[in-house]
Amino acid sequence: MRLPRPGVRPAARPAGRRAAAGRRRSRRVRRGAAGRPRRPGPRGVPARGGAGRPRRAAGVLPQARVRPARRPRGAAPAVRGRARPRRDGRGPRPAHRRPGGGDVAAAARRAAGLADVVRVAAGLGPRAGPRSRAGARHRRLHGRRDRRPARRGRHDAAGRRARPPRRPAPGVGVPRVTRPRERPADAPVRIEAAFRDAGVTGHLHAVDVDTGREVAVRAEEPVVLASVFKVPLLVAFHRQAAAGTLDPTERVTLRPQDRTSGPTGLSALLDEVAMSLRDLACLMITVSDNASADALLERVGLDAVNATAAALGLPGTVVEGGGRDLFDVLLADAGAASLGEVWARLDEPGMLGRLRALDPALTSRSTPRDMTRLLGLIWRDEAAPPPECAAMRRLFGLQVWPHRLSSGFPFDDVVVSGKTGTLPTIRNEVGVVEYPDGGRYAVAVFTRSPLPVAVLPEADAVIGAAARLAVESLRRTG
Asked: Is residue 176 exposed (0-12), middle (13-18) or buried (19+ Cβ within 10 Å)?
């Protein structure tokens, strides 16, 4: 703003503004005269406010006051040139040093700022000078981003140079972010945490079908197979079919009173049914039909199933009986008349401990490592001749239950093939996960819950979550 020359009276303000200013001044004078008491000034200095304040002569401009600014870096502190009066009337304040620089320092700062404005307007950029303390502290804390060495101080203990920004990959507009390679020991810890969060005790084994790399969590401990016993039964059936011991197209007639009870497949039907052995095998795997499994086991033989497991190198796998034998033991131990009554009485004290079907030492059992080995033999065409292994892979891929192993891989181009198993407090699934790049991973997850409930979504979902953690670890470390 341009100021008038000294001694020249400025142009008069409009009448409206003069009247408003007069009213404000009169209110201040009245408030100082009749309102709050005036503050006494030092000796020889009139009190502030009211009629004792001298008026400025007409046509005389007040002396320009420059607010003292902060002292520039490197400048010596200046002594305040004028003493201000105390508010309590004890005389003027003593002169003392303060980091301000007075009027000269403020004028220098303003001139420097104006020079910066002129240089920016001319396209020359601001001047190169000392930086602010806040900026220096930020650089000490976080390092410089312009590839210059960071200031060494107590916030930068290492005293290293800041890394330059990552260069983008050729043809890509954003920097390429690389994920650190996971250590093999990290996956079991995360899987254990997932089991713990779901409130279950879990056993897991995952192995790359082609390379043999693995992730294991209590993989050698025996577990209850439940309906997973149908996997070695399927292998024994196809081995006998390939050897010519039985005809897979042989038809079997099943009457309602001869079928094992269950919620799916032929177990839920009311009329007599005639089917081939290979169709019984299909229902046994795809919908876990108990009636079909018992009919097939009767034709193949229990000893043949255990002999097949031993021949394939599965020392921890033993099948004690079929579905009917398992249910009979459950009803006898619980003293119940139906499976529904068994589920209803699971919360009785000592009930779970009396059920032999839940004890790996007294029922059909295996280990997670045995099950992944068996699946790997099927997927590598080593459990039986290639046509029979292909037929078994097809049946595993047609399983209809998506709430366990498949829930961990919700992708259209990832194929999950498996077989579930369920008993009171027991939830299992074994299967193979196949990726579009050719990766094949056999996974076996066995869980036990302390809650005697039939529906427990957390226990079902953790099977897929744990399998996903194991498979992703194998894919990253490979």
From this structure: exposed
Is the overall model pTM greater than 0.85, yes or no?
no
Q: Percent of the chain having pLDDT more than 90?
A: 53
- Tell me what pLDDT residue 4 has: 53
| SS3 (DSSP) at 37 | coil
> Could you give the CA distance from residue 260 to residue 55 in angstroms, rounded to a whole number?
114
Residue in the block written with tokens 């009785």: 348
Of 1-15, 120-134, 317-331, 445-459, least confident by mean pLDDT is 120-134
Which residues have a Cβ under 8 Å from the Cβ of 368 and sit 6 or more positions away? 203, 204, 205, 216, 218, 219, 223, 444, 445, 446
The DSSP element (H or E) to which 16 belongs, if any, is: helix 15-34
Residue type at 454?
A: A
CA distance 268 to 264: 6
Domain boundaries, the chain: 186-477
pLDDT at 27 over 70: no
**232 has a pLDDT exceeding 50:** yes
Q: Which residues lie below 8 Å from residue 267, measured CB to CB, with a gap of 6+?
A: 259, 260, 261, 289, 290, 291
The architecture in CATH of the region 186-477 reads 3-Layer(aba) Sandwich (3.40)
